[in-house]
Specification:
This protein has 213 residues and is α/β, with parallel strands linked by helices. The chain has 6 helices and 11 strands. The chain folds into 2 domains: 113 residues, NAD(P)-binding Rossmann-like Domain (Rossmann fold, 3-Layer(aba) Sandwich), CATH 3.40.50; 93 residues, Alpha-Beta Plaits. Helices cover 28% and strands 27% of the residues. Strands 3-2-1-4-5-6 form a 6-stranded parallel beta sheet, sandwiched between helices.
Length: 213
């Protein structure tokens, strides 16, 4: 896959290193040559110095043949993402957007976005409001959260079905004595089992109550 990354900060460089390690063809753009020092010694892609929304720079990065573009800068991501999607018809475009309201607008326009401020706020809210629920990740704009829990003694002997709220929670994996499996609804729980659960954010209080047996 041919990927263009605009911005070689901590996010962009980490993404570039990961994609390069998987043998994808990567071009990374940044206005500061010093930023390329964040790339690993094993990075095999190309480095271009310039502004990511400059069409000439994007053409030097061979954007016409790119499979994907990730805009990871602190400020220019909207312009870069729109240019890549609408002008150069890049099939897959994703942008880091700090303003949640702007992020929602661009998601509606078909540009997937990552919103660090919203993710951080939602993570902290979960930690404060539901300390028994350890958050793994957030999906979308925070509508669904992936959490991990350790089964309390009070739930030992009950089944996975007891933690399923139709349309609001789903147990996706169970780790028991270091071995992971995908449980069925009638799998019986043991104390200290580790469960990985997808929960609708609005249902977190309801799910938390299920653990209070």
């Amino acid at each position: 896959m041919r990927v263009i990354i605009v911005g070689c900060g901590r996010v962009g460089s980490g993404l570039a290193n990961a994609l390069s390690a998987e043998r994808h063809e990567v071009v990374i753009i940044d206005r500061s040559p010093l930023s390329f020092g964040r790339l690993s010694r094993d990075f095999s892609g190309r480095m271009l110095m310039g502004v990511g929304f400059d069409r000439e720079i994007l053409q030097k990065a061979d954007i016409e043949g790119a499979d994907a573009l990730a805009a990871t800068t602190d400020s220019d991501n909207i312009v870069v993402a729109v240019t890549a999607k609408e002008t150069f018809k890049v099939p897959h475009v994703v942008a880091r957007i700090y303003d949640p309201q702007a992020a929602e607008i661009y998601r509606r326009e078909g540009i997937p976005t990552v919103t660090p401020t919203l993710m951080a706020a939602n993570s902290m809210k979960t930690m404060i409001s539901h300390p028994r629920l350890a958050k793994l990740a957030t999906c979308g704009s925070g509508e669904v959260e992936f959490i991990t829990i350790q089964v309390p003694k009070g739930l030992a002997g009950r089944t996975v079905q007891d933690l399923i709220i139709p349309g609001e929670s789903l147990v996706s994996a169970l780790v028991r004595r270091g071995q992971a499996s995908i449980p069925s609804a009638d799998t019986r729980l043991e104390a200290e089992d580790e469960l990985h659960v997808a929960v609708a954010a609005k249902a977190l209080p309801k799910f938390d109550k299920l653990l209070a047996y």
